[in-house]
Structures
1.
Amino acid sequence: MPWAKALRTVSFHDITSGNNISAAARTIITRCGYDLCTGWGTPMGQSLINAVVGAPDSLGITPSGSFAASGAVGGRSAPPVRHLFLTNNSSSPLTWSVINPATWLEAAPAGGALAAGAETNVIVSFDAAASNLAAGIYTTNLTFTNWTTHVAQSESFTLQIGQSLVQNGGFETGGFTGWTLVGDTIIYYGRGNFLIYDAVEDTASGYEVVHSGDYGVFLGDDQLATLSQTLATVAAKAI
């Protein structure tokens, strides 16, 4: 098949010399292309990765990854905006557009053209509809399409309205999710013996917690330790 030959030539080092000549086994000698001695050859690292998952698209988006904001019912959300930078990493011009399915999110500009090596700034913000949302957690994906390569990339956005600013406040995830712990956790001595310094334990293990949940946190480090969390706030607004 033509595609198999193309994959082989750009993703593998073809081994054309050597053999496994042995009196006790069938003789197999290497040759150009696929052979029973070495198969397709040794992989070419990044070239093989690109062939399997695809090379990065010429339209670059930074920063990548999910974005989360929070706010009170009827109030502003923080952070209020996210700046995305679109870059044309190719030597040819391209056109792009963004699909925004959420009524509470706005992306501007929503499309355009980029010359080779050029970049543009897309501002993603919460529009007036966001202030009318009821308490809840809202998620959406913005889809950026490179119409030159026909490759689409998604950026996820989450808006928490009327939710607690403190993430995992009751430690009900069973761990320190959302928190940054600097200190000792559980020290095991073997044969089931251990010492708890800082850890989250559940009632099923025989521990008593100080609220109605299933988990509680032990904070008993004998050295200086910290447990912290960064909260998204809005200037001049009470927490």
2.
Amino acid sequence: MLLAGQGVIARADPDAQAAYVPTQGNLEAREWFQDAKFGIFVHWGLYSELAGGGKSGPAEWIMNDARIPADKYERLAQFFNPSHFDAEAWVSSFKAAGARYVVFTAKHHDGFAMFHSRASAYNVVDATSFRRDPIAELASACQRQGVRLFIYYSQLDWHNPDYYPLGATGQFAGRPDSGDWNRYIDYQNAQLRELLSNYGPIGGIWLDGWWDQQGTAQQGQWQLEQTYRMIHALQPSALIVNNHHQRPFPGEDYQTFERKLPAGDGTLPLEMSETMNGSWGFNLTDNNYKSAATLIRTLVGAAGRGANLLLNTGPMPDGRIQPENLQTLAEIGSWFKTYGRSIYGSRAGPVLPRPWGVTTRTASVIYVHILDWRDDRLFVPVSSPVKRANRLADDRAVSFKTVAGGIEIRLTQPDSGEWDRVIALQT
């Protein structure tokens, strides 16, 4: 993921997107993505064995943060044998939580492939005693359970000697002060080709690490047009997103925002990613778990801005999901059973986000999500005539009256544990 403090340019660039013409299948996939609203991010790799390195930094960055040379880091592959990994159990937990898609880290910045890659022996099948392909198993489980699989792939690589100039990170990996950039791009594209050719339908490719080359002579040589053209040729419906924190480049199908609520302009679908505690990968000492209430309110805030929430979990080295994460996922799933119809298939509502909350909308219903309001009346500036108002939790009628510029809703105090008071307005 991104280094702390790097900025985000939130606006899409319509002129750049005009050069790319998506297929009908791709446009339909975008609609599906916007309807889905909730996905699970999975950060899992060799770095999980080091459990975050205490307070040294984010778990998946341990090779960089602890200044581990690549030849020493490679030894972690000898110890990686997650005997409790169960793709069906993972996907079942994610689906029960209400997630419609999963984004799995096929290769993070450390350069280790969590799939069987012919482009490099530095992969989970050839370099470990585990000798299983997690992506193959996840792809099968997702297909059986009706969950779409997206693939995360880091363009940044602290291990490959052809990744040169070295970029802003990974300076202590012991790589040579030389390399063939074009050969590295060929290597990257070969692995992406494998991911798109060997695992059935892929929902999308989630790229990261472009930002590492900002400020170097190579920054303009990522050859994104070539890479994106290849991805769309292999799977036209697959969506491309790049965590570069710039305006979208031609060929990209949605924008993602890291740990912040998005502010797009409607040109492309939107997504925000967030962690359950402070780390993306497994960190044994990171106990800063966010409550289910906090995460649901984040989900609602994203939906009110027309965006998805991509919620991260960092599985343990043995392949199991952290029990704290499973508990949180179960609570989110329970919430979805009552309130899911105000989220799934919705778009941003007619009222811009307010200090008290947000609105979402389906065909004929406006959902007022009240997150922070204690008074007994709330003015909602809607222009459509409202026929009926009711609490989504129990369908009880809510008193309202039409006033200048909208309606005024009469409210009772929120129930205990009512993290999001949802009022459905029939229009």
3.
Amino acid sequence: MEPGLAIDRLVSQLSALVGDRVTTSAPIRQRHGQDESYHAPHPPDAVVFPRTTDEVVQIVRLCAAARMPIVPFGVGTSLEGNIAAVRGGVCLDMGQMNRIVEVNREDLDCRVQPGVTRKQLNRELNGTGLFFPIDPGADATLGGMASTRGSGTMAVRYGTMRENVLGLEVVLADGRVIRTSRRARKSAAGYDLTRLFVGAEGTLGVITEVTARLHPVPEAISAAVCPFPGLEAAIETVILTIQMGIPVARIEILDEVMMEAVNRHSKLDYPRQPTLFFEFHGSEAAVAEQAQRVGEIAREHGGAGFRWAARPEDRSRLWHARDNTLYAALGLRPGARAMITDVCVPISRLAECMLATRADIDRSGLTVCIVGHVGDGNFHLLILVDPNDPEEIARATDLHDAMVMRALALQGTCTGEHGVGMGKMGFLQAELGEAVSVMRQVKRSLDPDGIMNPGKIFAD
């Protein structure tokens, strides 16, 4: 059957199943083929909005019968082309599966549908004494965060989605529904399927429910911002803080270019210097002790002018500025697109990696911001490029590739939290070697027709 006829027939079948919650509208398709990355958009042939696991099962079975690609979609905040429909097919927008199924206060966990966003969950938890700490900056869905093994600003203390997803409900490529675990906090029962699907980017199945770990709201929270005379001094402060075992909740670095952008965007007046953003959680006494110890380390490395924020509204203003770094950076060069990338290295190699990358940036002549969750060795470049200038894009690509290969040489990873998607496929073999062939075997076993988000992680 011709591709056009196949999709027309499938759309007719989907319409019979979900009514007007399937569309071939060009603007909606375009929106669902583009994330926040610089990668070219690849719209799906149709977008469907399921509301239940049973609907997902029936949609998957229809697509499987037609051998039509399936691309799960959260809110589109991914950064490596993870949701681009590179082979067309059907996009499953999970936004209407946004119900919080249950909150178990005594057990510190919850069950949610995949379209629930992190801010929605924390609003629901308000007043329970619990919160969900994984904060990638964007108000991403928990299904999307699980799919990309997201983390963000508080991973240094609370871990990533790997540690905070306790179990999943998944619809496989043949329509079977599995639960990867029960709610017990530990189990030695068979393979760890939860971690297999966390980070699989929808290439093995469609996540339809997430059981997530919750954490007690700290008794006290305090935040601080501290500028440094240079990037190396800021990085050394981070390394010593972590090596001394100080349990900070967040340590974020913004270089001087990023600080200029944040000041402009958020109408702030921080010094145009490399700057660390800290947050401390715990009892009043513990927070005071953490802050004192970090302050001493910072002063030893030339840090000065700590600005403290203890009131919730002040902390919110501070972290709002940090969370909007992408839009702030774009303001430095209107009309540009941001080539965003990340790497992660062992904390002992962080200074070497970041300083060498800074030297590469200076030689490139490009406008680049550095920002990172440096408490766990993870940092990002926001490379501003003219999308219509091939020479500039080539320079940016060279800078990106050098940064990634350096991280791999230092026993790091090509992606700390963005996932592989399309953007990091070329580095996976260099990082993991023969393990990639094992991944391919798993993929072929669970998805023999290759319909689940094809063209991601590896090309075939």
